[in-house]
Design a protein that fits this description.
Layout: H1 3-24, E1 36-41, E2 45-46, E3 49-52, E4 57-64, E5 73-76, E6 81-84, E7 91-96, E8 101-107, E9 113-118
Parallel strand pairs: 1-4, 3-9
Antiparallel strand pairs: 1-2, 4-7, 5-6, 5-8, 8-9
The structure holds copper (II) ion.
Residues 70, 107-109, 111-112 line the site of copper (II) ion (CU).
Amino acid sequence: MSLDKIIILISSVGLIGFIYWFFLSRRPDDSPMVTTAAISVSGGYSPSVTKVPVGQPVTLTFTRTDPNPCLEELIIPDLKIKKDLPLNTPLALTLTLTRPGVYPFHCGMNMYHGKIIAV
Ligand SMILES: [Cu+2]
């Protein structure tokens, strides 16, 4: 095997290793369980994952500071929630999730995503 092939082989193995590490080392489920969360809406949702207990009222407060009209609408399809997020005006949503699971939410154009994990 020539030297350049060995270099390509080593760098491919390294790249694959890096890809595995990059994706598998991210554990969004490690987030702490909360009953209130402040989610800032600016170029996405931060935090993008909120873990909440099942069967307890939880309050998520969304505050949009990004003038991008794309983020104006907040949609949680599984809960049939569709809300407007006026700029710089916190919107508090109080929910009681009765079933464990992942409840994704997204902006009006389905470009930015977040999720609520009920456990
Ligand atoms: Cu959007």
